[in-house]
Amino acid sequence: MATPRVFIIRHGETEWSLNGRHTGTSDIPLTANGEKRIRATGHALVGDDRLIVPNKIAHIYVSPRKRAQRTLELLHLGCHDRLPWNTEVNDSIKDSIGNAEVQITEDIREWDYGAYEGLTSATIRKQRAEKGEGSWDIWQDGCPDGESPEQISQRLDRFIADIRSKYHEPALQGKSDRPDVLIVAHGHILRAFAMRWIGRKLETGVSLILEAGGVGTLSYEHQKINEPAILLGGSFMADVVEQASDSK
Q1: Which residues are catalytic?
Q2: H/E element holding 167?
Q3: Over the stretch 33-62, which tens digit does the pLDDT of each residue have?
Q4: How many whole angstroms from its chain centre is CA 74?
Q5: Distance between CA 145 and CA 142 in Å, rounded?
Q6: Whole-structure pTM value
């Protein structure tokens, strides 16, 4: 029995992510380089003998933002004919074997930055200093007219509980042969997701980095639902590789 995993994937590079501007509700497209790097990520990490095995994915969640949805398209997971925003099948990936349902969800949309939308951290701190408001840390202070750390935690805790009850508990009980879940979203919300996955408060500080187009893995220790963990590194699935070799 494979231990269930959650793959968290940040959308590819945009002009705003490149410049360090906070991008919440704004729908900024991927750059040409961002698209190129996501394609490379898909080729490197998706496949029977790779980190992400499409036929082991039970469900795919994606943010409502176009940059996240385009990232999912470019990963070559073999789910193009099931993407809610597309009506045409991409023939270049029609032979892929992924069968997971794709769901757009507000649960994994980016942090609502409110008055700080489109601003860099340096600009925010400068504005606050001019107003005599002191320093700023999103993990403690949140965003005026946007979301607080408490609101983010509440949103993610509901989402995590849903993933565990629908997909991971059945997999750990041997009732499903598709143990994995994949999420394509954004930098702040996915780092917050990782912290809440292991029960850590956001207010304590989040010393995690997830670059544009980056992939992270969350799982469990000892195959126990009450022992969630961040998977720092894992081995490839030898049985899948051998099956693929035998079929050639």
Answers
A1: 11, 110
A2: none
A3: 999 999 999 999 999 889 999 999 999 999
A4: 14
A5: 9
A6: 0.90
